[in-house]
Specification:
Keywords: DNA damage, DNA recombination, DNA repair, Metal-binding, Zinc, Zinc-finger. Belongs to the RecR family. The protein has 206 residues and is of the alpha/beta class. It has two domains: 51 residues, Orthogonal Bundle (Helicase, Ruva Protein, domain 3), CATH 1.10.8.420; 126 residues, Dna Topoisomerase Vi A Subunit, Chain: A, domain 2. 47% of the residues lie in helices and 12% in strands. It has nine helices and six strands, in the order αααββαβαβααβαβα. The strands form two sheets. It has a four-stranded parallel β-sheet with strand order 4-3-5-6, covered by helices on one side. The termini are far apart. It binds zinc ion (ZN). Zinc ion binds next to helix 4.
Length: 206
């Protein structure tokens, strides 16, 4: 019988993405072997995660609050092209795209496709539609089509279904919709794509 305290830790880890009960058990017993200071440092960093990281109200990416900033650094950056929105499933998908250095627009984190397809239109997507409408209102009519939404979703079956779902919702807004996943190998998750592949996929989006 696993002691209650260890079981409580295992239960927490089992809820993490990609972690099953066996891995959760391994992690819990690994933590048990750490020194008290290492465990304290780990728990402090988890508390700081909730205290210092806020979700950007524009793009839904997490950002570190150091002063009175209201949005993430990308949304706050005046040089970023606000009419170019790259839609990603996970926040961790932003970094590899940023590393290519060729994307000058902004992002929108919509959440995992698998979750989304089961439910009604999620808040992140409703927010994306509102965000586009807001930008459109500030543009003269002839420039409204210059808004580009790049669907940078995983090149998986779920990613494809998700892209179709978002495209259908975006169509009435008459924006230019491009897809990045086509340049990625089938089954590829964006997060793990190498830089050259990503640059190619970004440059050849259609
Ligand atoms: Zn943002």
């Amino acid at each position: 019988m696993t002691p209650k305290t260890i079981q409580a830790v295992i239960d927490h880890f089992t809820r993490l993405p990609g972690i099953g009960p066996r891995q959760a058990t391994r992690i819990a017993f690994f933590l048990l072997k750490l020194s008290p200071s290492e465990v304290t440092s780990l728990s402090r960093s988890l508390i700081a995660l909730k205290e210092k990281i806020k979700i950007c109200p524009v793009c839904f990416a997490g950002f570190e609050v150091t002063g009175d900033e209201k949005t993430c650094t990308i949304c706050a950056n005046q040089k970023r092209i606000k009419t170019s929105i790259c839609v990603v499933e996970r926040e961790s998908d932003i970094e590899p795209i940023e590393k290519t250095g060729i994307f000058k627009g902004t992002y929108h984190v919509v959440g995992e496709s698998v979750d989304i397809l089961e439910r009604a239109t999620p808040a992140t997507i409703t927010h994306l539609l509102n965000r586009i409408t807001y930008i459109q209102k500030q543009l003269p009519p002839e420039r409204q089509k210059t808004i580009e939404v790049i669907l940078a979703l995983n090149a998986t079956v779920e990613g494809d279904a998700f892209a179709l779902y978002i495209e259908r919702l975006l169509r009435p807004l008459s924006v230019t919709i491009t897809r990045l996943g086509k340049g990625l190998a089938s089954g590829a998750e964006l997060e793990y794509a190498d830089q050259q592949t990503l640059i190619h996929a970004l440059e050849n989006r259609k």
